[in-house]
Amino acid sequence: MEVMAPEPARTTDVAALAIDYGDRLLLGTVRDVHQAVAKRVFRGTRLVGGRLPESMHDAVATSIYGAISGFLRIGSGAVRTMASRGVGKPVEGSARGRMVVSAINGLVGDELRMLDDPQAITMAVRVDGADVPANGWPLREAFRDGTSHLVVFLHGLCENEESWNLNARAHGTTYPQRVSAETSGTPVLIRYNTGLHISENGQHLDQLIRQLVANWPVPVTRITLVGHSIGGLVARAASNHATAAQQTWQHLVRDVVCLGTPHAGATLEKAAHVGARLLRFWPESRPFGRSLESRSAGIVDLRHGYISAEEWKGQDLTAQWGLDRIAAAPLPHAEYHFVAATLGATQGHPLSSVLGDLLVHFSSATGVGRTGAVVDGARFEYLPSAHHFALLNHPQVGDWLVSWLNARDERRPALGWTRRA
After folding, report:
1. Which residues of 91-106 are buried (b: 16+ CB within 10 A; e: fewer)?
2. Alpha-carbon distance values, 298 to 108, 193, 229, 307, 333 (Å)
3. CA torsion angle for 350, 353, 355, 356 (degrees, to 10)?
4. CB 154 within 8 A of CB 225
5. Helix (H) or strand (E) holding 190
6. Gyration radius from the chain CA atoms
7. Residue pLDDT, tens place only, 213-268
8. Minimal CA–CA distance to 142: which of 202, 187, 199?
9. Separation between Cα atoms, residue 135 and residue 192, nearest integer Å
């Protein structure tokens, strides 16, 4: 029985989603703020005009907001019907469209997956802007020249595999290109739904790497994991899950490279949580707090750098601060390389002290938390006068990456993997 390929997400799907959120967040926030302000104003008029002016106002406001909401819902339904009938261009047909889908997944990817929305991304190996099945002929065809050393690249929040091309024209190259040209490694670029819990993406990556190793064109003897931002947490979550599940591939990992990864939590997510809680103190600002709380599970996990389900399960982390991280043992055969950047020219610069690299503080990127180092023995590198996204493609970081991969080539005997027949 032939399996039908899922319908691609179309521009009409994106438009319908935008209308839905316009109704739920924008219009809903305006309506709730209006009601809160009106309630405060009418407290003073009740002494003179009784409740009649307030009742008339409420009736008119309710009918107007209801009409607008109804119109938006009808519009959303009509646009979704058009999408189901094939109207609209496939949104992933262009790099810009793929970037839009990735950004949407980072913001509300957990909800998209729950609703079975065609825009929800499924973790996959990517080549030339398309998924490559991690088995059989498609994988062998896509990686005809694949070596025994896999270098797996994991992008950050709201990004995709093409984000590693940032400033490629100015620098003349990218990390995957340098890995392919200057080391024994074969770059393998992964795309995934960054709106899901980090621990869940870790499970998906564990499964995907198992498939890759079992079906790779040649026996795999070495694996390197390279993650930008949340991608570094997903890499650690995958190896942690594989170890707990008594898998084997994690013993092939020789290097784990984390670029601007919030190991001890992201400052911006912590500020968002505190801001949402503060906004709830006043009726007029409460709707803005609810809107701010409508962020994905992947973003909320960044508050403390959670990589296992035990750290968040059973908790509503949008309403609570959360618990401290659970210690995860590092891989015994791997070296951990943590790269941190700061906006200022030194760590002590005011911009560096307050904002770090704009999104992640220096101490978090180097894996230093309240209870000590996240990974004992991790090696740190520092990139001054650079922002968070510069770490996606920076000449100095590229030099470090190449040197780490080449330095480890002959250091330890390789462990082979027996592939299934």
Report:
1. bbeeeebbbbbbbbbb
2. 9, 9, 12, 10, 28
3. 120
4. yes
5. strand 185-191
6. 24
7. 999 999 999 999 999 999 999 999 999 999 998 999 999 999 999 999 999 887 76
8. 187
9. 18
Residues 220-234: b if buried by 16+ CB within 10 A, e if exposed: bbbbbbbbbbbbbbb
**Per-residue buried b or exposed e for 336-368, using 16+ beta carbons within 10 Å of the residue's own CB:** bbbbbbbbbeeeeeeebeebbbbbbbbbbbbbb
The predicted-structure confidence for 166-183, as pLDDT tens digits, reads as follows 999 999 999 999 999 999
Q: In the prediction, which pLDDT does 251 show?
A: 95
∠ CA 379-380-381, rounded to 5°: 130
Integer Cα distance of 322 and 315 in angstroms: 7
Q: Look up the pTM and report it.
A: 0.86
Tokens of residue 121, six digits: 């991304």
C-alpha to C-alpha distance for 191 and 98, rounded to whole angstroms = 11
Q: Which DSSP string corresponds to 225-276?
A: EEEETHHHHHHHHHHHHHHHTT-SGGGGEEEEEEES--TT--HHHHHHHHHH
Alpha helical stretches, state H, 5-94 = 11-21, 28-49, 52-84
What CATH number labels 124-266+323-407? 3.40.50.1820
The DSSP 8-state label assigned to residue 91 in this structure reads: G
CA distance 407 to 179: 13
Cα–Cα distance, 191 to 92 (Å, whole number):
13
Which two three-digit tokens encode residue 141? 């065809």
List, in sequence order, every residue forming a beta bridge with 38; answer none if it has no partner: none
Report the residue count for the chain: 421
Residue 285 burial by CB count (10 A; 0-12/13-18/19+): exposed, middle or buried?
middle
CA-CA distance, 227 to 260, in Å (whole number)?
A: 9
Cα(210)–Cα(83) distance, integer angstroms: 35
- The b/e string for 137-174 (b: 16+ C-beta within 10 A; e otherwise) is eebeebbeebbbbbbbbbbbbbbbbbbbbbeeeeeeeb
Element (H, E) at 171: helix 168-171
